[in-house]
Design a protein that fits this description.
heterodimer; A: 116 residues; mainly alpha; 2 domains; 89% helix; B: alpha/beta; Spore Coat Polysaccharide Biosynthesis Protein SpsA, Chain A; seven-stranded mixed β-sheet; 8 helices
Chain lengths: 116, 226
């Protein structure tokens, strides 16, 4: 039963992502990430044995722990990259704002020069 | 009929020094170079040739720079935009081939293609994308294109600003808006510096393939005709 629930969640997630990309509401790199997440959810819900097999390989006796640890660490990685991207955007916006102010000053100068 | 030639440029001072005088000699259209935050004297070289240069304060990539030129054309009421690369692989003489093709066949976009330049790897990638999107265009990435007013209006839209590459996304957008695209074979030179912006490293290729595949799958069934 859980498998079917996860399969449905994965399917809904991927369809929503594709819809957002199609409507031009989500940027390429983010879409690719979410699409991969949805694909993983679907694959794991169809073949849950993968988790059991991987847990046995790394020596974890209770396989769901592996799934949870992996999921939480992926969320942490994603949050970290998000903050990196946000920092980059913040810097770009600040530089852009400063540049705009400087450009405006240059244009004002030119206008007053022409008036004289 | 006003025509604008848009040349996106990133660190292309040396190539532009050769290209711009030739271009001025061969065609009489207005030219604008979009300087994508170059580290060399691209802007100085362009200005010294008496050509307009739009310098971006933030790096936007090849498509972002090209769209800047297209929006400039939109604002200044140009009827056609011709885009070409700054690296010298697109020949100024061939601009007329694009113009002739546009006048002879009723279409909104003309793409100048040079199939011989495609490597086997690229051909494989294109075949995959063409299979996903059902686009019937030989050369998906050629930046040597002519857009008419209708295409300029479509590509000036806000949605087009989120695209990262000027190939599949741009073509899908044009086709979805019901515009027609034709291809015309043109002569091209090999890249002067031998580098491609998209196919430069394996990591970049992988990122490009993944992103474009997502875009293709998202647009399945959007528009099937040529």
């Amino acid at each position: 039963m859980t498998n079917i629930t996860i399969l449905i969640i994965g399917a809904v997630l991927s369809i929503s992502i594709l819809y957002l990309v199609r409507k031009g509401k989500m940027h390429g790199p983010y879409a690719t990430w979410w699409f991969l997440v949805a694909a993983c959810a679907m694959i794991l819900s169809i073949f849950p044995q993968i988790i059991d097999w991987a847990a046995a390989k790394v020596g974890i006796t209770y396989p769901p722990t592996l799934l949870l640890v992996l999921a939480v660490s992926m969320i942490l990685v994603r949050m970290l990259t998000m903050d990196l991207a946000l920092t980059q955007k913040e810097r770009k916006i600040r530089r852009l704002t400063q540049k705009l102010a400087m450009m405006e000053e240059v244009m004002d100068q030119e206008n007053t020069d022409q008036d004289q | 009929m006003k025509t604008l030639i848009v040349i996106p440029a990133f660190n292309e001072a040396e190539n532009l020094r050769v290209l711009l005088p030739k271009l001025k000699e061969v065609v009489s259209f207005d030219v604008v170079v979009v300087n994508d935050l170059s580290q060399d004297e691209t802007a100085e070289v362009v200005k010294s040739q008496g050509i307009k240069c739009l310098s971006l304060p933030i790096q936007l990539g090849a498509w972002g720079a090209t769209q800047t030129g297209i929006r400039y054309a939109m604002k200044h009421h140009y009827d056609h935009v011709i885009t070409m690369d700054a690296d010298g692989q697109h020949l100024p003489e061939e601009v007329h081939a694009l113009m002739d093709a546009y006048q002879q066949t009723p279409s909104d976009v003309v793409i100048g293609t040079f199939p011989a330049r495609l490597s086997r790897l690229k051909k494989l990638a294109w075949a995959f994308f063409k299979f996903l999107t059902l686009i019937k265009i030989e050369d998906l990435t050629s930046g040597f294109r002519l857009y008419n007013r209708k295409a300029i209006e479509v590509l000036s839209q806000r949605q087009a600003s989120l695209l990262d590459y000027q190939d599949v996304g741009v073509l899908l957008m044009l086709l979805k808006s019901g515009l027609t695209i034709v291809e015309v074979p043109v002569k091209m030179l090999n890249r002067n510096d031998g580098k491609s912006r998209v196919f430069s490293s394996w990591f970049v290729v992988l990122k490009y393939m993944l992103q474009t595949t997502t875009l293709c799958i998202a647009n399945i069934g959007a528009k099937q005709a040529k």
